[in-house]
């Protein structure tokens, strides 16, 4: 697999000259403006299929070559897209099968984007041809550094071709209908399958009651999308290009299991659009959740640096309302990506379209075309700063804490009826467990159940309802080998086919590891509360309260109310040097803060360079191959903050020695341990 590496931080944008071919002066101005903005990289041709193949089988790459050449002449690299994210009208009108069928069985008309059928042989053939042709034309162009495969893969297709492929995949997975009927528990309600042809994708007017069926459909969608991507990459290779590939992912997007994409990508990239300056009085909720999402995307790439492929330099146009970034926020939010392992800051989009539905989406260049626009100058300032941070490129974000997040678990957990149909809040819960570490300045990795957890000191696995095959064994080995494990209510309920464990819960021996046996779960209405007292403080519990019996664990806190008052709500079970904690109910954030602060002290996880991380400051660490460390300080508050350092560091940008990190409102600083 080719390795993507680059000596400098990439800075640039999605560039859509295909919209501007009739405006040569605009294209000329773009080159000037890119230089002024400190742009060294663009993503080109993402939606350019109709310009690249204006008529079936007739390619026109001349305009693109001219642009790639000119960009190179100005020192701007190209990340070249395969154009498959939007199909030309000539194709979708001629070949009905390339258009998706929605879950109600209705076929799309032409239009939109991100809506091709990923099974259609016609679409695959057209894709293979244009990808191979592009690879032949640009695959060894010195200006092109990376392939951008399609754009934001997502969505589902319920057409007959996809349904057939689903059945074929099920046959391969289960072998026999007897086995499928068992694993799907389809004798329930007499839904037994006697012919493969009787199986359809889950649709609202059809079968939606077999949880295993719904789960397998989601797995199939990931599989089929990844298979389509594999075919895209194969065509590039056939066309003669050995360049590395990426696909731009979408954080916690629920439609695809990105961990299954990672092996196909040379580098992960993602599109980040936090809702800065929203109505939430807790202004730190957005940066904290964004931090978690960066950690997830880095985790998908197995901890390697990733690329921030899209972000807006100012505002989006698709949220309920569009707020520009306040002064300073563009720099800060971009530096946050670097702080979590990104080796780029790229935008959607370079220039605002003149018409159509994205014409009011933020861009580096506004309709006025000026370089003294506030947004442009913010971008240019960042461009200059990134140049000074080239040495950070390629460094890792070492972490001793892992948070387990797993898409299949999420699908199963959220897809089950009960125990809390009014909101089971898996993502919110993850965010609540992540935030204390964010506040303490402790790097955190996000891993799914296929990941290796053996090297961490602390593994947190909230609401791990499903144990995929082999994961419980990893958790047990981790704990018995001296690790600290934190698990919660509603864990180890089902196996990987969504069948409940018969016997003690959490299943697969984990009841023994936690030293508890879960018996019942109480699901509260939103206004209802329970409580427990931990280390002299009382904390509110809400939403889910599990009734557990201890079998080897010691209770650290007990329920304060209701018929289960006095029963354990928080437990600890020792295994030599290892420990397994079980949090039986959903506690308020204040508890998690206190609980994890204590664990951080016990396990010595806190960053050694500061006595404390002030509220609103994010602190992360990157480590370069030679061992040099970079500490990223970010002030997400509207107040100036001065952070005391335990020992002097060097400002990585100015080289000055510092005994404090002085941060103005929204300011970030990068410090290093050795004189630059
Ligand atoms: C996505 C797409 C882009 C653009 C932006 C707008 O990330 O990939 O093409 O539509 O959204 O925010
Ligand atoms: Zn289809």
Describe this structure in words.
This protein has 676 residues and is of the alpha/beta class. Among the domains are: 202 residues, Rossmann fold, CATH 3.40.50; 56 residues, Immunoglobulin-like. Helix content is 29%, strand content 20%. It has 16 helices and 25 strands. It has a seven-stranded mixed sheet, with helices on both faces. Strand 21 and strand 22 form a beta hairpin. Helix 5 runs parallel beside helix 8 and helix 9 packs across helix 13. The longest helix is centred in the N-terminal third of the chain and has 28 residues. The protein is globular and about 75 Å long. The two termini are 33 Å apart. 49% of the residues are buried. The mean pLDDT is 97. The protein binds alpha-D-galactopyranose (GLA) and zinc ion. Zinc ion (ZN) binds next to helix 6.
